[in-house]
Amino acid sequence: MEENRNDWKPNPVFSSMPHSMGRGSREDIVWEALDRVNGKPAPTMDAMRAAMGNEAQIRIVHDTIRAYLDAHGLRDTSELGVHTSP
Predict the structure, then answer these.
(1) What is the rounded distance in angstroms from the CA atom of residue 86 to the CA atom of residue 76?
(2) Nearest to 76 by CA among 46, 44, 33
(3) Per residue in 65-82, pLDDT tens?
(4) Max alpha carbon distance in the chain (Å)?
(5) Residues 13, 81: Cα–Cα separation, whole Å
(6) Which of 8, 24, 67, 76 is the most buried (most CB within 10 A)?
(7) What's phi and psi for 45, nearest 5 deg?
(8) Taking the model in full, what pTM does it have?
């Protein structure tokens, strides 16, 4: 997954293994799901390949966020801020 957060920089102290097993990986999954809710296209891959990587988790998070927004009549996350502000 290509990083697209503005101020994010990989930590040179940690290898990719701790990142992939810890909080960093979970954050990557949520960020990717949020980007897709906001219109980023999902990659094309078969179910087996998706299940073997983070793609299955990204899809679950995306579906959950999408269901929440739909339940509140919102198109994307930009409308969520407007909806929740006083």
Answers:
(1) 19
(2) 33
(3) 999 999 999 998 888 877
(4) 45
(5) 35
(6) 24
(7) -155, 155
(8) 0.69
